[in-house]
Design a protein that fits this description.
Rossmann fold; 4-stranded antiparallel sheet; 2 domains; 16 strands; 6-stranded mixed sheet; 9 helices
Amino acid sequence: MANKKRVLVLVDGDMVAFSHAAAEEYGKELEDVNFAKIQMSMDSKMKFILDRLGATDYFTTMSGSENMRDAITDDYKANREGVWRPHNLKNAKAHLLVAWNGIAKEGLEADDLMAMLARHEYELVMGKRNQIKEMIYVGPNTYDEVYIVSLDKDLRQVGRIGGKGPVIKHYQWERESQGIGEKIIPVEDFGELKVIVKPSGKSQKKEVKGHGPKFFLWQLLTGDSTDGVIGCGKQVQAMYKSGAKAGQSYSKREGVGAIEAYETLKDCTSYAQGLEMVKRQYVLHFADGWQKALLKAGRLMYMAHMVDDGHLVRLWHFDGKTTDRYDLKEKRVVSHAEYLQR
């Protein structure tokens, strides 16, 4: 009998908890919310996902209450302050941690954990409440297939490189209320960028889609408004010139836009070539400050995946050689020089 294919499924627990808690609570008074319904809907979704993808093993990953990116900048995700969150979000996450092999690590986001486990095998030293104490590197991931289950576009950076390791696929579940169907996206090597043209009223709207390292390079130029990352641009003050808000000031981003970034990178065939194009744009926009600006953007948006000595997360660098690390125990960035002296 042939050996069964080994399939590792990594589920974004943050997103499952939020989406199901929000769906139950939206438009209701708190006394009318039934947490049992949230639990049952999450259980049903998790069972469907694991059965649908043929999981032989799985983890449900959660973000810690602390984030290593806060050591890089004090305004990471600051734009989310005051944003509505479901009342039962914490309870929903706790249920997934207990019932669906949940794991979390202070300092890391659910995305980071998925990127790490998709590419490498770690011995997880566990503490209380399914919290990871240390991640001991064992070696490359040896599964046949890995599914990254999330609606977050940032994770599409993560794929198989050079035909080594498991086939990595990204799974997005169906969202009936939005008319969006199920998607399975294999990600391999340099990846791709493409422009999708969508109707928008009487006109058409262009939207850039992509995956792999090429998509990460595109993000370096455009930033990520969801997380408050500016990318190759600056935040400036402007004023409404007409309408009900005429004379009022507002903040907007000025810099490399989505289509301009696509045009910059579309003909690049390697990460090295694309990175040079990105560097040029940063020099044009930031002059002598380009290195600092690029390093900040890259470390905020890069899905970290390598952990040394159980607690030192390797941070992205545009030169590919300088390997600064974030110390999850000391909660600070350790320079490459300091690490070599330890």
